[in-house]
């Protein structure tokens, strides 16, 4: 048992903050057992770790980012999606055939993800099974939790990263088998997006999903040219979402990045199937993709979370992602007042408990939740002028950075970066 005392802030419900100043969290076997303004009688003898006037919040959840693209941050920002993939992204990912190179680069990505306060992450690696395994092994070594996908691509890309269809399916099965019982970092089925996968590949991946009840991640409705291309490639399908659905890849364990340009039918299908939409506002801005109708999707019952989508996105920070999500939502609100806008409390929910739901009981300090947490020292951010802890949290998210994150916990364990 360990007990931590601090000013606790977390969210139990979309749109609500729970604040407990000088509160105590009790943690056993990595999970929260109590949260209270007093130490319960049974635990009076336990030594308390007291963080004084600092804030304690749940760790951030990044539901979509590309580990091999970290080296491209800030590059190609004059391009839109399809030329950006072709000219910049695919040639970079080809380099990850070299395991030593992958090791060197992935170490840096992991360190930076942790530094920004992300405690759970869902990564794309590359088509190379070895590179995906390296990413898992390095994450496990330092204690970063989440999912890693070996990317599947057997069409519409350079020879150097194009897979043979059957090899792609077989390697994914082997990779999945080898990692499915991992505790910290699990495998996830990762068809890159519809244009880079043939029908037989999508079918094979759908079969893997059934065999293992596996989670899935991909991209959808990011860019107009992409959507037109999918319609040409799949004239038999009703929509982009329908292509995934036909192959059993649109389930309540699926993450779909972007969802910028959705038809009403696609939104309904997402809500009905329980697919989670991952909002990646930096990427959507940089690649000129559009503004995702986040509030509209949420209002219609679609589950949602946040992603950094490096290197379409230029920031690995989920705090910065919250801010841009709120800003873009405010811009949309100006044209669509009925939709409402994303409030701070809502954005904080998406960044913690909402996104965390993909990983199990993650993203809150409610009893039973895994204890992933950040200690925030905001003494350089005008603490004394703040009315309360909730104001301090807002200021940290909008104006602070990784230097304000002074301690990190994952599954109850301190993580050093
Ligand atoms: N669509 C297919 N691949 C990618 C990728 O790597 N990044 C983004 N943003 N969109 C994609
Ligand atoms: Fe992406």
What keywords describe this structure?
417 residues, alpha/beta, 37% helix, 22% strand, globular, binds guanine, binds fe (iii) ion
How are the SSEs placed, and which strands pair?
Blueprint: E1 2-10, E2 18-28, E3 31-36, E4 48-58, E5 60-66, H1 81-94, H2 99-115, E6 118-124, H3 129-142, E7 145-149, E8 151-152, H4 165-179, E9 185-187, E10 190-191, H5 199-212, E11 216-220, H6 224-233, H7 240-246, E12 254-258, H8 264-273, E13 276-279, H9 281-286, H10 294-299, E14 303-306, H11 318-335, H12 344-356, E15 373-376, H13 389-399, E16 405-410, E17 413-414
Helix pairs in contact: 2-3, 4-5, 11-12
The chain binds guanine and fe (iii) ion (FE).
Fe (iii) ion (FE) is lined by residues 64, 66, 219, 257, 309, 312.
């Amino acid at each position: 048992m360990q007990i931590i005392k601090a000013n606790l802030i977390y969210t139990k419900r979309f749109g609500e903050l729970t604040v407990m100043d000088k509160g105590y969290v009790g943690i056993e076997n990595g999970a929260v057992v109590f949260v209270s303004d007093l130490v319960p009688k049974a635990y009076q003898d336990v030594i308390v770790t007291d963080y004084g006037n600092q804030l304690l919040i749940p760790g951030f959840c990044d539901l979509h980012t590309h580990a091999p693209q970290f080296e491209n941050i800030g590059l190609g920002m004059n391009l839109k999606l399809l030329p950006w993939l072709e000219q910049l992204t695919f040639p970079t990912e080809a380099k990850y055939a070299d395991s030593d190179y992958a090791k060197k680069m992935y170490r840096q990505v992991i360190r930076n993800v942790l530094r920004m306060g992300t405690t759970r992450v869902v990564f794309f690696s590359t088509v190379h099974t070895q590179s995906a395994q390296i990413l898992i092994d390095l994450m496990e070594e330092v204690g970063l939790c989440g999912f890693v996908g070996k990317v599947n691509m057997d069409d519409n890309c350079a020879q150097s990263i194009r897979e043979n269809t059957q090899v792609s399916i077989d390697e994914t099965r082997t990779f999945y088998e080898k990692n499915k019982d991992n505790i910290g970092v699990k495998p996830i089925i990762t068809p890159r997006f519809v244009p880079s996968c043939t029908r037989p590949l999508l079918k094979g991946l759908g079969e893997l999903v059934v065999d293992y009840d596996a989670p899935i991640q991909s991209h959808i409705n990011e860019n107009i040219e992409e959507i037109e291309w999918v319609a040409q490639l799949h004239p038999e399908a009703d929509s982009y979402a329908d292509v995934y659905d036909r192959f059993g890849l649109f389930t309540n364990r699926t993450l779909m990045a972007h969802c910028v340009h959705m038809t009403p039918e696609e939104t309904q299908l997402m809500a009905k199937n329980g697919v989670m939409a991952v909002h990646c506002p930096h990427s959507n801005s940089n690649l000129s993709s559009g503004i995702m109708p986040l509030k509209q999707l949420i209002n219609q019952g679609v589950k949602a979370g946040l992603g950094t989508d490096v290197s379409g996105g230029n920031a690995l920070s989920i705090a910065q992602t919250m801010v841009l999500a709120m800003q873009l939502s405010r811009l949309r609100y100006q044209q669509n007042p009925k939709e409402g806008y994303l409030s701070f409390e809502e954005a904080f929910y998406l960044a913690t408990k909402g996104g965390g739901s993909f990983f199990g009981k993650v993203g809150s300090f409610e009893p039973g939740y895994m204890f992933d947490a950040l200690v925030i020292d905001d003494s350089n951010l005008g603490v004394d002028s703040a009315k309360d802890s909730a104001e301090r949290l807002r200021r940290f998210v909008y104006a602070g950075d990784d230097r304000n994150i002074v301690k990190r916990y994952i599954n109850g364990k301190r993580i050093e970066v």
